[in-house]
Amino acid sequence: MVGQKWVRLVTAQTPTNIAVIKYWGKRDETLILPVNDSISVTLDPNHLCTTTTVAVSPAFDRDRMWLNGKEISLVGGRYQNCLREIRKRATDVEDKEKGIKIAKNDWENLHVHIASHNNFPTAAGLASSAAGFACLVFALAKLMNVREDEGKLSSIARQGSGSACRSLYGGFVKWIMGNNEDGSDSLAVQLADEKHWDDLVILIAVVSSRQKETSSTSGMRESVETSLLLKHRAQEIVPKRVVQMEEAIKNKDFPSFASLTCADSNQFHAICLDTSPPIFYMNDTSHKIISIVEKWNRAEGTPQVAYTFDAGPNAVLIAHDRKAASELLKRLLFYFPPGAGTDLNSYVIGDKSILQDAGVH
Ligand code: ADP
Ligand code: DP6
Ligand code: CO
């Protein structure tokens, strides 16, 4: 190590991903190994995303992290697992411009400071843990010059939060559950890149940005322990659905994509209800959004919009195209007019011009 008064910084930005075939249940809590495969779509990096800066300096005496401006504890568990796995793979770093030279063996004695910020609600069912841990692992890997492919990085991010492994790729992504006990084959692969089906428009209706009462981690643990439906879902239903979903994505078959997405979201929330004590992630507004979409899809004869809800009340709405997205927005604004005391407080929109199409400025 040359010199003592230096700081090396790396900043990364990672989008969140929303599962269309859900991960809900672990077979190994420490390694975070799931009971079934899952499939997601990664959102546009310009919208819902995490920005993380990692810094290393000989002046730091311990690892520290700030999340949305507040210091959080790194003791135990997931953060340590990610840090350890990345540190293990650190290599030589040379920054000639700054005159910084770090040898492979120096890393075990160096500490990092991490500052992360989500530009969307944290722990509210919009997959902040996915964007958060994917971004952390990616930024640390760059800082420490880790030479691993995205598949390997995804399996490290998985040990931070399961859904995070899918945020290392854009487009449509599958998390393969794997068979190995050590988790080495439980990783994400890209099914199709972001250009493959770019007619789709994703709208997010933020029903509540409050932190959920039951975290995904404890919710799914309770479901594994108490829901009899969960086993049936994991073993009988999801394997078939994953094959059908891959086919629908490949062929850009929106009716199949929409019916599988909606059915899987509803089944996941049915598992939550089948948990003892039952977990309610959706609320009346979520249910009302489902009814609006279902009625509209039925009236059209062919689905225009798919809905999916993660572990929270917020709706992720995937429209067939811009026209359907604009019509959807009009309908949402009709049923939940802004300022009329409804529960739907804001929209996060993939493409701002859709707002203009819908007459909102
Ligand atoms: P969500 O539905 O938002 O993913 P979870 O209950 O799965 O909610 O996870 C929330 C937790 O994820 C937070 O309490 C925090 O521990 C972690 N997390 C969220 N954002 C970040 C981030 N940017 N960096 C690291 N960890 C994060
Ligand atoms: C409903 O990945 O947040 O969003 O692995 O315990 O961190 P941990 O849980 P997390 O669970 C996500 C559950 C989900 C569905 C999904 O993203 O597949
Ligand atoms: Co999460």
From TrEMBL:
Record's GO cellular component, any one? cytosol
Any idea of its EC number?
Answer: 4.1.1.33
**Any one Gene Ontology molecular-function term assigned to this protein's record:** diphosphomevalonate decarboxylase activity
Q: Name one GO biological process term.
A: isopentenyl diphosphate biosynthetic process, mevalonate pathway
The record's catalysed reaction(s) read: (R)-5-diphosphomevalonate + ATP = isopentenyl diphosphate + ADP + phosphate + CO2
List each copy of the Mvd1 C-terminal domain by range.
202-361
Q: Which InterPro entries match?
A: GHMP_kinase_C_sf, Mev_decarb, Mev_diP_decarb, MVD-like_N, Mvd1_C, Ribosomal_Su5_D2-typ_SF, Ribsml_uS5_D2-typ_fold_subgr
- Location in or out of the cell: Peroxisome
* Domain of life according to the entry: Eukaryota
Domain (Diphosphomevalonate decarboxylase-like N-terminal): residue spans on this chain: 15-188
Alphabetically list the UniProt keywords.
ATP-binding, Lipid biosynthesis, Lipid metabolism, Lyase, Nucleotide-binding, Peroxisome, Steroid biosynthesis, Steroid metabolism, Sterol biosynthesis, Sterol metabolism
Top-tier EC class: lyase
Family membership: Belongs to the diphosphomevalonate decarboxylase family.
Q: What does this protein do?
A: Performs the first committed step in the biosynthesis of isoprene-containing compounds such as sterols and terpenoids.
Q: What is this protein called?
A: Diphosphomevalonate decarboxylase
The opening ranks of the lineage are: Eukaryota, Viridiplantae, Streptophyta, Embryophyta, Tracheophyta
